[in-house]
Predict the structure.
Amino acid sequence: MKVLIINGPNLNLLGKREPAIYGNTGFESYLQKLREQFPEVQIDYFQSNIEGEIIDHIQQADGTYDAVLLNAGGYTHTSVAIADAIGGVDIPVVEIHISCILAREEFRHVSLIAPKCKGSIMGFGLDSYRLGLLSVLK
């Protein structure tokens, strides 16, 4: 199985940015542990602060990967274009959030991508990615 993790804007700052919300672990360290936990899964990773690059990677994943785990960051609440990209591919996309977006500022309560995703996992810290991976394993 091949899974692509896509992280959106500011998630390159994990481990530094607002540790009370996002923790002290950088994503690369977490990703290494995730790969060790699931050696049978090829887990590739892409991060971008640019909406169009995220869209390109979602589209390119179709037919190449079995699933996408997407933490769209702030684009979750604003990007019709990312939602349309998810709707245009034939592979499952799981929405991932480190924090519980429903427990945060009101503008974060609405996810434009959720209706196009297989499901949403939020609020479990970095472990949200592991839970998302479990949800797509066959």
Notes: DSSP finds five helices and five strands in the chain. The CA atoms of residues 83 and 113 lie 5 Å apart. The chain has one domain: 2-136.
